[in-house]
Amino acid sequence: PSAGLFFTLDGGMRFLADLHVHSPFSLATSGDMTFDTLAAWAKIKGLALVGTGDFTHPEWSRRIRRELEPAGNGFFRLKKAKPPAGGLPDGFRPAPGDVHFILSAELSFIYSQGGRVRKIHLIVLAPGLAAVERLNRRLGRIGNIRSNGRPILGLDAASFCRIVADVDPGCLVIPAHVWTPWFSLFGSRSGFDSVEECFGDMTPFIAALETGLSADPRMIRRVSALDRFTAVSNSDAHSPAKLGREANAFETEFSYAGLAEAIRGGDPRRFLYTVELFPEEGKYYADGHRKCGVVLRPEESPKRMNPCPVCGKILTPGVGRRVGELADRPERPKAAASLVPALHLVPLEEIIAEAAGFRPGGRPGRALYFSLIREFGNEHRILTEVPPAEIGRAAPGRLAAGIERVRRSRVTVSPGYDGTYGRIRIFDRSL
Asked: Can you give the pTM of this predicted structure?
């Protein structure tokens, strides 16, 4: 099995999956998002399954056919391994079977409904290339799917779901980063107040909601009407090193059918947990105005959105505020027995940077990072399983203590707002 795929006693498999990524054909995306490099970074991160991203784009779709081959389980794998791009050191070339890919795409929909302009992003997972071909033909007659890896269509969300269900009912449609203000199902600037308001009679076709980087499953569970939807988390990576910053851990048959059943069912015996950033680290957690440096945590914000005290313009409302507007449960609802747990982590390179005093993304920190990957196998294992004493032997200093603090959620965060990421502090003296 691959480095991120483990057999279990009952014949299932345990694996980590990141289902929402992008190709080089999406705007503001790294040219290193090639399949070879995605596979290499997925193995480094501990992922066994990664979305192809952007299957609606004609050129990326051709590359899927040229560079990947069916694995016989509804997933795909590299036809042959080539040296990955992105400045990876020697020794990180994946074998073709190390990482599998699932056909995925994200689409943007801008349309009018209920007297308002709506802007929604939806993820689609497909069980095979035939479904992708049929869907792309249908969408190509509706709008321009060539200009961007995440195409913009003037189609309402319910009509899109009808098309997908007609093309192949085995496809999954998942609303993306559902709370973010600008382009999402519940977005304060362009979204809806309920799933039914958006999808109408196609609501039963929606099985899951993606939390987004500024939210976690606990925030979705504050709205009781969302209990029937599984919460999933993905990286939405635009560069290879961001893979796996949010992900999903499953213990089920390693196949498209097994994955789809685990997502639709939301059974914590098969959908083990989601990997989450701390929500405050996301770019839209708090109310704020980036140009003026004004930021208000949800508990500091007034009930009504006030103008920016510096420039007088309306602050960009944060995810925390939006959740509070729709919530009918308290801040920390009791977890139901069927709730899939969430595991909050900090990317290893961020912990290294703070523990060792390195500049984030600099050469010394990156060298230590790859040294640890060689020693212990992958990042997820280091963050969740390797005993602190072993980490301390491999990397003297504060790194082991930093990882232990993250495992215990002993961190402080300056919240993100208005498109600015929050800042994690692990070694705060007050903790």
From this structure: 0.95
